[in-house]
Design a protein that fits this description.
It holds the Pfam family GH97_C. This is Glycosyl-hydrolase 97 C-terminal oligomerisation domain-containing protein. It comes from bioreactor metagenome. By secondary structure, this protein is mainly beta. The protein has helices at 17-20, 25-29, 146-163, and strands at residues 37-44, 48-55, 58-65, 70-75, 85-91, 106-112, 117-122, 127-134, 180-183, 215-218, 222-243, 254-260, 267-273, 286-307, 324-332. It is built from 3 helices and 15 strands. A hairpin with a 6-residue loop joins strand 12 and strand 13. The longest helix is centred in the middle third of the chain and has 18 residues, at 146-163. The chain is elongated and about 80 Å long.
């Protein structure tokens, strides 16, 4: 994004702790905030874009993809001279997965000529970043095969990417999909998913909580009532909760499931208490499914109550600050 989107004031978003463990921090810090030349090397509006920007004699090339995967063909004819260049590339690799492993990436070092062409694989919702600079310390003979080998690996990577789940395609079918959801506690406008009935829209949130799949509740728990289209025989209720203490997102202290035939008188089906222990690693990220199974009952209304103190615990570096509860699909079967 630092290359694709122009900004005269670049910054690293998120918490500093999240950059201490990243191999990309030093690499990103080298990206300038002003440019002498900008070129669009490849683009299909709404699908992908690849932009090259030059600062003095260094080029930075970046690309982003939509929910699909692409193999970009990038001729290097934009380089000014026919000498040798060193390219440092950060790219998607065979383990990159937008849902399960979004931070996975590969690093490649290549020596290039202006006459070369690179094939760059973009995974679904993926991208790449490349720094190119003149390199006078070596000369390349005609048998140099680094670029050819990189291109072969790039083409082979597409077989893996094409088999991955498409970004955003995480759907589930259950009895409450499309049902009306009434919330007693409002969700944050920052994390509203698809809006009022998002907790029963059939879309499952991923580990990337900023992609619009979760509803976030700041400084409180969550209470929701689901109105089924008609009285229905049910035997299971569950809900997903995100746990990411480094992002101030905690599991509720308890989850209660109720049912009702008239929407007035509710009966408790199950309570689940969740201990608020300090994890071994505060950077853990987990999706916890809290489920209640029971003898089947007739129900028209389902109430879900997720309790929370609303503040970060004593052991947390932000103790006393408002915490978050992130809720995903409420599944009724």
């Amino acid at each position: 994004m630092y290359v694709v989107f122009y900004s005269p004031l670049t910054m690293m978003s998120d918490l500093p702790e999240n950059y201490e463990r990243s191999d990309l921090t030093d690499y990103i810090s080298e990206i300038p905030d002003s440019w002498d030349q900008t070129l669009v090397l490849a683009a299909d509006p709404g699908n992908y874009v690849c932009v090259a920007r030059r600062n003095d004699d260094k080029w930075f090339v970046g690309a982003l993809a939509d929910e699909n995967c692409y193999l970009l063909k990038i001729p290097l004819t934009f380089l000014q001279n026919s000498g040798v260049y060193k390219a440092t590339i950060v790219h998607d690799n065979s383990t990159t997965d937008w849902e399960l492993n979004p931070e996975s990436c590969g690093f490649s070092l290549l020596f290039l000529r202006r006459s070369d062409t690179l094939f760059i694989p973009l995974s679904k919702a993926g991208g790449f970043l490349m720094k190119i600079e003149p390199w006078f310390q070596i000369s390349l003979d005609e048998n140099y095969s680094g670029v050819q080998l990189f291109n072969v690996v790039a083409v082979n990577s597409m077989d893996v990417f094409e088999k991955q789940k498409t970004y955003g395609e995480t759907h589930i079918s259950h009895l409450a999909v499309g049902s009306k959801v009434t919330l007693s506690t409002p969700y944050s406008p920052l994390y509203q998913a698809s809006g009022g009935n998002a907790l029963c829209d059939g879309v499952i949130g991923s580990y990337n909580f900023s992609n619009g799949g979760w509803q976030g509740f700041e400084g409180s728990g969550m209470e929701a009532v689901i109105e089924l289209p008609e009285e229905t025989r049910i035997s299971s209720i569950s809900a997903n909760f995100l746990y990411s203490p480094n992002d101030w997102i905690f599991l509720p202290s308890s989850v209660d499931y109720y049912y009702s035939e008239d929407g007035i008188s509710y009966k408790l089906l199950k309570r689940t208490d969740i201990p608020g222990k300090r994890p071994a690693d505060v950077k853990i990220m987990e999706i916890r499914n809290i489920e209640a199974r029971f003898e089947s009952v007739n129900a028209r209304y389902i109430k879900v109550v997720a309790a929370s103190s609303g503040i970060c615990p004593e052991w947390h570096y932000a103790k006393g600050e408002k915490s978050w509860v992130f809720v995903d699909e409420i599944i009724i079967e």
